[in-house]
Write a structure and sequence with these properties.
The chain is of the alpha+beta class and about 575 residues long. The chain has 19 helices and 21 strands. It has 3 domains: about 50 residues; about 230 residues, Periplasmic binding protein-like II (D-Maltodextrin-Binding Protein, domain 2, 3-Layer(aba) Sandwich); about 220 residues, Dipeptide-binding Protein, Domain 3 (Dipeptide-binding Protein, domain 3, Roll), CATH 3.10.105. A hairpin with a 5-residue loop joins strand 19 and strand 20. The longest helix is centred in the first third of the chain and has 23 residues.
């Protein structure tokens, strides 16, 4: 039906009425209208291709994600699934590659001042998915919008190295005082508060990706659209998004590096069940399985490993247990330490995750830090944990039975979260004699409770957004930080972080960060369970599946071997 309407419209466009019709299609003028109309016709025909084309004729990758992205707008995303999609659809000044997190992206050249506080970016000749050039003004306005006090942006803090960025977000200075200047269409100048050694790495994270201002200012919900109103600048463009069902991406013909994008299409089903996803993989309905897409069921890992099918990659992420420092009984540091010391992390990685991950209690994953600290305490130190428990109970004027069934551990209902939670519950009862209740919620509710501090104790995760230890440290800098789940705040800790930023020399900087890590271990707002080693599966016909230094799949370099004729799923 849609195709018939498009054909009727096409037939009506006589040369006499062409300009008038196009002006109605797009208020910005004839150039945009011609493009949008052509795009509409291409979508009409592409639907027919999708139904009838054989898989052997198309380089199409099939994936699954557990839930709909919260948003495809890179300014507003904060979860792993949203950012994964944003990396496919958008690109920043720098980008992640298998070799670096600071390879040139939209920037063709970068100049850095002698004092390391002024960055000048010269943009390459690149285009949005509608054929309009990407400009420095797009970057400048996107970033300034995020720093508007009235704009909801979970990751606005990542822009705070920019001069007056934090002050602008707090409403203390005007937008024009922010250290962001578009000097002309191709030149962007950024001024920093202090030298920031990891600034270029931050730029490769999706919060720094630009959006197309002409559409964003006209259409409030542009990021929920498909077709002509969803404009992006990355390797793929959005063709279809059926909520809780499927997302279809196609190669972006206007991407500046399209010659190195191998895939024609990525079909992403949406289903939150790891066991079912594994069955789909075994039925050749999925080509790759593993985070940041759908993970592999932990109880299936041993047998898959025995068959030689499991591959692994490190991801700069950690599973943690955090304590709400403003909720009973974790207002007391000794109670927090009792629960942290009692955890046997080695049992978790041997019996549940089966991936032999690097266990805590170190705060920073080795893939992020530039230093090596000995453990701050012994894993599963039950004897010391009981000493802290008795001390904490005396300070709170409580008995052990007062805590029995009075504490609830919050966790997500998907993935390995429930099994880890049950193991922790058993360990604490055995070590401390305290029965802990479990509260499992779907991911959206779980995250909402975490960020609002509506919990006592939680099993959760931190995933690095850029390749520097400061990405974890800065989350605990201020109580209001979106990922400061414990609501921790300490002036001494803040002073250490600010002092570390004054040093370009990495050794001096890391020495100060070590002091900050020792302070966290002493005050115990959270404790690390393990740092991630992620298993994944790939079909034999999937070649050149590579990862960035941050552990993310780089799908644009995938090559698919020709397979036997197989009909694409008819929708």
């Amino acid at each position: 039906m849609k195709k018939n309407r498009l054909l009727q419209l096409k037939n009506k466009l006589s040369s006499a009425s062409l300009k008038k019709t196009l002006s109605r299609l797009d208020p910005f003028g004839l150039h945009y209208g011609v493009f949008f109309l052509a795009l509409l016709f291409s979508f009409g025909s592409s639907c027919q291709v999708k139904r009838n084309q054989k898989r052997s004729d198309l380089a199409e990758l099939h994936l699954n994600i557990p839930y709909d992205p919260y948003t495809l707008d890179p300014r507003k995303g904060g979860d792993l699934t949203s950012s994964t999609m944003q990396f496919l659809l958008f690109e920043g000044l720098t980008r992640m590659t298998p070799y670096s997190t600071v390879s040139l992206g939209m920037a063709e050249k970068i100049d850095i001042s002698e004092d390391k506080k002024t960055y000048t970016f010269y943009l390459r000749k690149a285009y949005w998915s509608n054929g309009v050039p990407v400009t420095a003004f797009d970057f400048a306005q996107t970033w300034k919008d995020m720093l508007n006090p009235n704009f909801s942006c979970p990751n606005a803090h990542l822009l705070y190295p920019i001069k007056n960025a934090e002050a602008a977000k707090r409403g203390l200075v005007l937008e024009r005082q922010i250290g962001i200047r578009a000097l002309d269409y191709q030149t962007l100048e950024v001024y920093l508060e202090e030298p920031t050694p990891f600034f270029l790495e931050m730029l490769s994270f999706c919060v720094y990706f630009p959006i197309y201002q002409n559409v964003a200012t006209r259409i409030a919900k542009w990021a929920e659209c498909t077709g002509q109103d969803f404009i992006c600048n990355g390797p793929y463009r959005l063709v279809e998004w059926r909520r809780n069902n499927e997302i279809i991406l196609e190669k972006n013909p206007y991407y500046w590096d399209k010659e190195h994008v191998e895939l024609d299409r990525i079909s992403i089903s949406i289903m939150d069940n790891e066991a079912t996803a594994l069955q789909m993989f075994e039925r050749d309905e999925l080509d790759v399985l593993g985070l940041p897409f759908t993970g592999i069921p932990s109880d299936a890992v041993p047998s898959l490993r025995d068959k030689g099918l499991i591959k692994t990659t490190s991801l700069p992420a950690s599973t943690i247990c955090c304590f709400n420092m403003h909720a009973f009984p974790f207002t007391n540091v000794n109670i927090r330490k009792a629960f942290a010391y009692a955890i046997n992390r080695q049992e978790l990685v041997e019996n549940i995750t089966h991936m032999n991950e690097e266990i805590g209690p170190s705060f920073i994953p080795k893939s992020l830090n530039g230093y090596d600290l000995p453990p701050f305490f012994k894993d599963g130190d039950v004897e010391t944990a009981r000493i802290f428990l008795r001390k904490g109970l005396r300070e709170l004027n409580l008995k052990e039975e007062d805590l029995d069934n009075a504490i609830t551990l919050l966790h997500a209902s998907s993935g390995v979260y429930p099994k880890i939670a049950e193991a922790l519950q058993n360990q604490w009862q055995k070590a401390l004699g305290i029965r802990v209740k479990l509260a499992r919620h779907d991911y959206r509710v779980f995250i909402d409770k975490l960020t609002k501090r509506n919990y006592q104790m939680a099993e959760c995760a931190w995933i690095a957004q850029y390749g520097d230890p400061m990405n974890f440290f800065e989350r605990l800098k201020i109580k209001s930080h979106n990922k400061n789940y414990p609501a921790y705040e300490n002036p001494q800790y803040v002073e250490l972080l600010e002092k570390s930023s004054q040093y370009i020399d990495s050794q001096k900087r890391f020495t100060i960060l070590q002091e900050a890590e020792r302070l966290i271990a002493d005050e115990m707002p959270l404790t690390t369970l393990y740092h991630w080693r992620t298993p994944y599966l790939q079909k034999p016909h999937v070649e050149n599946l590579v990862f960035s230094n941050s552990g993310r799949f780089l799908l644009q370099q995938i090559h698919l071997q020709k397979m036997g004729a197989k009909e694409v799923r008819d929708e």
